[in-house]
Amino acid sequence: MLNNDTIKLRVEELLRQMTVEEKVAQMMQIPFNITGKEEALRWAKMGAGSFLHVLGDDAREIQQAAMSSRLGIPAIFGIDAIHGHGLKHEATIFPSQLSAACSWNPEVVEEMGRVTAREVASDGLHWTFSPVLCLGRDTRWGRVNETFGEDPYLAGELGAAIIHGYQGDSLDAPDSILACAKHYIGYGEAMGARDAMDTQMTYRKMKEVFLPPFRRAVEAGCASFMTAYGSIDGHPFTADPKTLKDILRGELGFDGFVVTDWNNCESLMIQQHVAATIEEASVQAAEAGNDMIMSTLPFYEAALSAVRTGQMDEAVLDDAVRHILTIKFRMNLFEKPEKVGVPGCVGCEEHLDAARRAARSSITLLKNEGMLPLKGVKKVAVIGKNADDLNSQYGDWTYFTHPNANEPRPARRPYVTVKEGFEALCAERGIACVYHFGCEVKPTAADANGPALVDPVAEAIRQQSLSRLRQEDDIPGAVEAARDADAIILVVGDMIDQYGEFKDRADLSLSGRQMELYRALRALSIPMTVVLVASKPLCIPEIAATADAVICAFNGGMFGGQAVAEAAFGCFNPSGRLPISFPQHSGQLPVYYNTLPGWHGGRYMDQPATPVYAFGEGMGFAPFTYANLTFDPATLLATVDVTNAGDVAGTEVVQVYMHDVVASVIRPVKQLIAFTRVDIAPGETKTVTFQLEKADFALVNRDEQLVVEPGEFELMIGHSSKDSDLLKTVFIL
Ligand code: NOJ
C-alpha cells in the first residue's frame, strides 16, 4: 500500500492536471441500470468517477473506457451487496442484516462481510453500499430488515465487524472492497416510520442515539459514507454541513468520501423544495460535503455552470475530488484498476458453509414449552406459504426479489426452504412429513389504497408481484393435512411486497388469513411450533401466548429453512437473541427497550407496557443462571458467574446494561454497553469478566457535547434487557 504522504502528493499532482469538467465528472456516480451501456461508456470516457448497479463483464468494459479517458483515472463500481453479493445470480445469499444481528456474533457478521467482499471483488467490483447503520426503532418502516436492529451499541459492534469483513486489512488487497456506512443519518427515525420523511430529532438526540454506530464505523476505518434522504429540523441531510462536515469530518475525523443516496441532489429541488433550480441544489449538495453524487445526471452541467457563474468555488470540487482520489489511491486502483477477488469463489462450498453458519447463528428460539427439540414424533406437518417461499426467505436485495437486479432469474440451488429442511431431516429419521401451504400471506397483490407508489422502481416491484402465481386459500385442506400429525410446524410472516423502500406498513399484524389458519390448526390440540419467516417483528401476541414454541428466523438467506429444521430437531442448540423488540400491537409503536422514562407508566391504557418479546431475549435448550455480580468502580471491572443449568452444552450471550441515575438530561431506563458470547458445558459455571471504560457511561449534554457526568449509576448484567433477567449493582462514578 502506498504511504499517506505519497498518496497526498499523487492526489495533488493529479488534481492540478484536472480540468473543471474532469473534476465534476469525477464526482458523478452513473446509474448503469438507468443509462444502459452506451451511455455509461460515454460517461466513462468523460472521466466519470463511479458507476452503480453494473456487474462483471459490463463493469470491466466500462473500466477499460475509463482508463482510456484523458487522465486514465479508474472508476469505482458500487453495488448493493448487503447480505451477500445478492444482485448476482451465482452469489452466496446470507441472512438479512437483521437476521444476522440475531447472532449477536461479530465473528459471524465479519465472515458474512468477508465472503461478500470476495464475491463482489471476483466480479471486478470495488464497493458495497453496506452496512446500514440506521436503527430499526419504529418497525412500521419498510427497511427494518436492512438494519442491525434497534440498539446503537449492537449496531456499532456488528457494523464494525462487517466493515472489517468487507475492507479486510488493507483496501488494496485483491479481495477487499469498500464499505459504505449508510444512511447518514437518522433515516430510520422518519416521522411515523414513513420512508424518507422528515426525522423526529434534534441534533442532541441525533448525537446520542443515532451517531454512535457511525462513530464506530469511522473508528473501524469505513472508507465511505452515504447521506440519508431525510432531514433534521427542516434541513435535508444532503444539504447539511453540520452533520456532514462539522460532525462527520470534524468530530469523528472521517477521512473517506461521502456519496449521496439516489438522486438526493435533485431531490433538494423536486422533493424537499429547498432549492429553486438544479444549480442551487448542486451547490447546496456539494458545499454541504457530498463528494460523490449518486444518480443525479443533471449535476454535471449544473455544477459546471455554478462554477462558471461564480455561484460555487472550484475549491469545493477540489475537496470532493481529493476525497475520492485518495481512496482510489489507497485501493491501488491506478496500478490495478480491477478487483479480482478469489477466482472461482462465487457460490463456492466454503462460502455456502459460511451462509449455513450464519443462518444457524441467527435462529432465535423465543418460546419452548417442552416441544423442542422434537422427540418421538412419527409425523410432522409443515404448514404455511412462507415455509416454501424463497422470496420471503431471501428478503430484499437479491437478484430475484429486487428490481435493480440485472438478470432476474429463478433462484439458484442449493437453497433449502423450511419445507425442504424438514423433509430432509424427517426422511433421515424415518419420520413422515407432509406440507400444505394453507393460505396466502398477502391476500392480493393490488395496493388497497390505489397506485400510491409512483416511483418507477417501486412500480416495477408491484408489477413483478402482480404477475406472481397465487393460490386459493385452503385452510380446511391444511387442517386435514395436519390432523394425524404429532407435531405441527406453522410458518407465518410477511412477503416481499410488504417491505423494502417505499413499503412501510401501518399494520404489523399477520396479514391475510394467517391468524385464522393458526387458530384452525391450534384447535387440533397438536403440539405446534410457530416459525416467523419475516422481514421484521410482526405483532403476534396471541401466538406468543398460546403456541407451544416460537422460532424467529427472519430472512435467513439460502439456508434459512435448513437452519430452522435443524434447530427444531436439536441438531444444534440455538443461541440467537433478539436485536429488536416485538410489539404487542402496531399502535404501541415505537417500542424499544432503551426508552426515556416518563411518569405515567409510559403505556397505552389498552396495551401492556412491555413488548411481546424484548430486546436481547432468546433461549436455547439449556437455561442459564446468573449469580455474584461484582463491579469495582475504580478499575471499572465487572464480573458475573453464569451457570449452564441444563443438560446440553449451550452458548449464552451475556449482556451488560447501564443506567445513569441522575443526569443533566433524561437518560434511557437502560442502555447496552457490552456483551459477550460464552460457551458453557452442562452444569458448568463460568466467571465472565468485562473491562468497561468511562466512555461507556457518557451522555450528550445540552451543548451537544459527549461527556461523562460523575454521580450514581446502575450496572445490570444478565440474559436479556428484561428487568427480571438482570442482576443489578449501584455505584458512584
Ligand atoms: C437507494 C437506497 O436508499 C440505498 O440504500 C441504496 O444503496 C441506493 N439506492 C443504491 O441502490
Provide an overview of this structure.
This protein is of the alpha/beta class and 733 residues long. The chain has 21 helices and 25 strands. Strands 11-16-15-14-12-13 form a 6-stranded mixed beta sheet, sandwiched between helices. A 5-stranded parallel beta sheet has the order 4-3-2-1-10. Strand 15 (528-533), helix 20 and strand 16 form a beta-alpha-beta unit. The longest helix has 17 residues, at 106-122. The two termini are 44 Å apart. The structure holds 1-deoxynojirimycin. 1-deoxynojirimycin (NOJ) binds at residues 52, 80, 129, 182, 261-262, 501. 1-deoxynojirimycin is lined by residues 52, 80, 129, 182, 261-262, 501.
Q: Short summary of the structure?
A:
The protein contains 21 helices and 25 strands. Helix 6 packs antiparallel against helix 14, helix 11 crosses helix 12 and helix 16 packs across helix 21.
In order across it, which strands form the biggest sheet?
A: 11-16-15-14-12-13
Sheet/helix structural class: alpha/beta
Percent in helix: 25-40%
| Percentage of residues in strands | 15-25%
List how many beta strands DSSP finds: 25
What's the gyration radius in Å?
26 Å
Largest β-sheet summary: 6 strands, mixed
Poorly predicted sequence stretches spanning 5 or more consecutive residues: none
The 3D shape can be described as: globular
Mean pLDDT: 95
Bound molecules: 1-deoxynojirimycin
- Give the number of helices: 21
- Could you tell me how far the N terminus lies from the C terminus, measured between alpha carbons in angstroms? 44 Å
